[in-house]
Design goal:
Layout: H1 14-28, E1 33-36, E2 41-42, H2 51-79, E3 82-87, H3 100-120, E4 125-130, E5 151-152
Parallel strand pairs: 1-3, 3-4
Antiparallel strand pairs: 2-5
Length: 153
């Protein structure tokens, strides 16, 4: 058994993910199960959401999980064992009005992990995608006029 170690990670900060993955592998030697369960969502009409916010949502919900997965994957492949889980959302399968950025990022993640599942079969690495319906999240209030006021984490 290993003593738990708290590692803070902003999944939308792609640049720090590699360092955190290296730290995890240095500390424990391997990852048996990787559960990707972080995301951000925003509610608003397509024309009212900035491209900057679209990119931030895509970084958190698509590039974050795939970057972390790609950082851990070589270790799993070399050991020919492991399990990768993406906790996604039904909006990765069905678009809902006023959730275009969120749904697009979740669709992209489903596509990536579906392909990864097929590729990892030869290495005996299991890849699962869980698509629950609506998930209770908390809303972070920002200063008035700040575009981040509509972000949910």
């Amino acid at each position: 058994t290993y003593a738990p170690k708290l590692m803070l990670l902003d999944i939308s900060d792609i640049n720090c993910i590699q360092d955190v993955a290296k730290e995890i592998l240095n500390c424990y030697g391997c990852v048996d199960i990787l559960i990707n369960n972080a995301s951000m969502k925003v509610k608003g009409a397509v024309q009212s959401i900035s491209l900057e916010l679209d990119k931030k949502i895509m970084d958190a919900n698509y590039f974050g999980p795939i970057t972390l997965t790609k950082a851990i994957l070589p270790n799993m492949i070399s050991r020919r064992t492991g399990q990768i889980v993406l906790i996604n959302n039904i909006q990765g399968k069905v678009g809902i009005p006023f959730r275009a950025a969120y749904a697009a990022s979740k669709h992209a993640a489903v596509g990536f992990f579906d392909c990864l599942r097929a590729e990892m079969e030869e290495f005996d690495i299991s890849v699962s995608t869980v698509n629950p319906t609506f998930i209770c999240s908390y809303h972070r209030q920002s200063a008035p006029g700040n575009w981040e006021a509509s972000i949910w984490k």
